Amino acid sequence: EDQVTQSPEALRLQEGESSSLNCSYTVSGLRGLFWYRQDPGKGPEFLFTLYSAGEEKEKERLKATLTKKESFLHITAPKPEDSATYLCAVQVPRGTALIFGKGTTLSVSS
Amino acid sequence: KAGVTQTPRYLIKTRGQQVTLSCSPISGHRSVSWYQQTPGQGLQFLFEYFSETQRNKGNFPGRFSGRQFSNSRSEMNVSTLELGDSALYLCASSRENGQPQHFGDGTRLSIL
């Protein structure tokens, strides 16, 4: 069964303190791994798509990497505005639907 | 460019009633998916529609149904509402396979 597990569930950082979020997955034929950010009261906002092991994507203070079994979202020198829940998902074998992990809630304090 | 629009934003119903939620995808997107989000279970896939046909279905009871119209707009219906159906219902659209899904801000459904 396709499954996505994220850790930690919650992470508290000081402004400028870099860290990484983990997403491990089991899927029969990876068609795409997706990272989203979700703010309270809002729908998930798309960040990155990774398709094959070794691939990396960057956007501002965020960098996503992919191996055959897991993905990492590295946050460099975070700011309070990076506080949000970060969701990882894999695409089902047929179609565009996603299987999500339960997310990591990041809090960055100044 | 307009994003995914969901209506209504908030809804309060009582047990046993039924409800219909609406989703307008991004222009040009033909795939629409629906998800249920709760604090305990996270985001769970309900179903996906493409060109008016249901392409995938999640593990939810038959009380949950949906449809897609020729203009790609979609509706989902929940009949005989239960307390456990209280959740944020999210709609997402995408252009084609392998492309990211883009989400609306959801409909918050509360069952009394």
Structural overview:
The complex is a heterodimer of chains A (110) and B (112). Chain A is mainly beta. Chain A has no helices and eleven strands. Chain A has strands at residues 3-7, 10-14, 19-26, 33-38, 45-50, 56-59, 62-66, 70-75, 84-91, 98-100, 104-109. In chain A, strands 2, 4, 5, 9, 10 and 11 form a six-stranded mixed beta sheet that branches. Chain A has a five-stranded antiparallel beta sheet with strand order 1-3-8-7-6, with no helix packed on it. Chain A starts with a strand and ends with a strand. Chain B is mostly beta strands.
Mean model confidence by pLDDT of chain B:
95
Number of strands of chain B: 11
Class from secondary-structure proportions of chain B: mainly beta
Work out the radius of gyration of chain B.
Answer: 13 Å
Helix fraction of chain B? under 10%
Which pair of chains has the greatest number of interface residues, and how are they split between the two chains?
A-B, 26 and 29 residues
Count of helices of chain B?
A: 0
In terms of per-residue confidence, which ranges of chain A show pLDDT below 50 for 5 or more consecutive residues?
none
For this entry, what is the oligomeric state of its chains?
heterodimer
Features:
heterodimer; A: 110 residues; mainly beta; 6-stranded mixed sheet; 5-stranded antiparallel sheet; 0% helix; B: 112 residues; 7-stranded mixed sheet; 11 strands
In short:
Chain A is 0% helix and 56% strand. Chain A has 110 residues and is mainly β.
